[in-house]
Amino acid sequence: MCFGRRYDHNDQELLNIVNVSEQFTDTAASANPVDFIPVLQYLPSRAMSSFKDFNKRLVSFPQKLVKEHYETFDKNNIRDITDALIEQSLEKNVDTKNSTQIPKEKIVNLVNDLFGAGFDAVTTGLSWCLMYLVMYPNIQKRIQEELDQVIGQERRPRLSDQGMLPYMEAFILEMFRHSSYLPFTIPHSTTRDTVLNGYYIPKDRCVFVNQWQVNHDKKLWKDPQTFNPERFLNAERTGVNKENAEKVMTFGLGKRRCIGDFIGRWQIFLFLSILLQQLEFSVSDRTKVDMTPLYGLTMKHKRCMHFQVKQRFPMKSIN
């Protein structure tokens, strides 16, 4: 989606990015005093050096591809997200009242945000989905019954099926809420002095939103510690309760929310629906599923050593 190309599972360039992403997440997860006392960045620090090194390696990947896109750009053949951003940055007749022209030098940052943040957010979300499915096999069975009834086995799920799979949607929303694997928004900054609910916040102050607290607030949710997709179904069980769905905080809120919000949600829906149409997930008998989150930039679960997968029906050609 970002670069208009597919990578083989053994592609060394892609594997390097996967490995660096994991190292980056581990390093960023550790409490770094520089986050709270900025002047410490000028003192020797192994953690800070590693953090800067990972950042350089992560940025070098999209930098190379954005450069290639500029060299082969054709306004009559927009191939992917990078081309679309380049087109917008080169557009001379941008309506400044309704949109802001993207500076050329910001394109690498935007692509890196989409690629880097989406990379971890989607895979971590899918991983939590699978853990909840083996933890609650009855929920997995109900989702698969819905898939069989609405889609069947003759074709793969599409994004257009989303509105016809309310229980699948409800499950994903409850996964976002209950796991809150993105516990805080990325850091934002105040552009002016402001007051929020009686609290004074000065200009240029770093601000985080505690999404985990919102998703587990007893004033907003009945029995918030219980995993229950039913809370997101409407009274007729034919669709999603939009009021409850809008209360879930995963990618922030407002115009400063994560730019990959909708892409991330769509990808998790498509991947998960295809997986559950084809496969059944479980753990071996007497295995206790450990759902204790591991603290980090995104909260992950402990590795499940007895995870099992089997086909739901014989393989055949599916369009």
Q: What's the short version?
A:
This protein has 319 residues and is mostly helical. 44% of the residues lie in helices and 8% in strands. It is globular and about 55 Å long.
Give the key terms:
319 residues; mainly alpha; Cytochrome p450; two-stranded antiparallel sheet; 44% helix
Q: What percentage of the residues does DSSP assign to strands (E)?
A: 5-15%
Q: What's the overall geometry?
A: globular
Domain count: the total is: 2
Count every beta strand, where a strand is a DSSP E run of 2 or more residues: 8
From the alpha carbons, calculate the radius of gyration and give it in angstroms.
22 Å
Roughly how many Å apart are the termini? 21 Å
CATH superfamily of the largest domain: Cytochrome P450
Under CATH at level 1, the class of the largest domain stands as Mainly Alpha
Low-pLDDT segments, ≥5 res: none
CATH architecture of the largest domain: Orthogonal Bundle
The number of helical runs is 9
Strand order of the largest sheet: 1-4
Helix content: 40-55%
Spell the H/E element sequence.
HHHHHHEEEEHHHEEEE
Profile the largest sheet. 2 strands, antiparallel
Name the structural class: mainly alpha
- Overall average residue pLDDT: 86
CATH topology of the largest domain, by name, is Cytochrome p450
